[in-house]
Structure to design on (154 residues):
């Protein structure tokens, strides 16, 4: 039993496993989730909860796989940052700068790892092996996640 959990960062590994010749007694419990739908819900819910969200500090590890394009739909300041203290501080600085300047765009403060298009090969693997479905998840009423394709091994 392979328990496949995580976001876009761990899903390509599951895809690689699915495309191998596996033993008949090998099973996958898939629980991968997608970040952009969660942000979409948060962005829409922000006005219903406590007021607007001023910006998103985007996860560098997810953006390494999916790139920047999926976040362009949100009309608020967004910055991709790494995980070291200086990366996080620089990302927060860039968000604050966008707010002060009245801008809303997706900036990449983690160019040593994240590229605009992301990891195209990993994206292709996920498209071959997963379908996107809606499920309830951690208080989100309906959240897109991935489900194994019926014939993922083919």
């Amino acid at each position: 039993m392979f328990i496949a959990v995580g976001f876009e960062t761990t899903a390509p590994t599951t895809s690689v496993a699915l495309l191998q010749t596996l033993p008949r007694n090998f099973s996958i419990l898939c629980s991968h989730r997608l970040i952009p739908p969660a942000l979409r819900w948060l962005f829409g819910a922000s006005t219903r909860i406590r007021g607007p969200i001023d910006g998103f500090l985007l996860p560098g590890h997810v953006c390494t796989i999916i790139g920047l394009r999926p976040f362009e739909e949100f009309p608020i300041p967004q910055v991709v940052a790494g995980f070291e203290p200086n990366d996080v501080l620089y990302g927060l600085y860039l968000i604050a700068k966008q707010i002060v300047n009245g801008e809303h765009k997706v900036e990449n403060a983690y160019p040593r790892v994240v590229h605009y298009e992301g990891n195209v090969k990993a994206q292709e693997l996920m498209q071959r092996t997963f379908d996107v479905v809606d499920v309830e998840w951690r208080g989100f009423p309906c959240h897109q996640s991935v489900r194994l394709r019926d014939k993922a091994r083919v």
Notes: The mean pLDDT is 85. The longest strand covers residues 140-148.
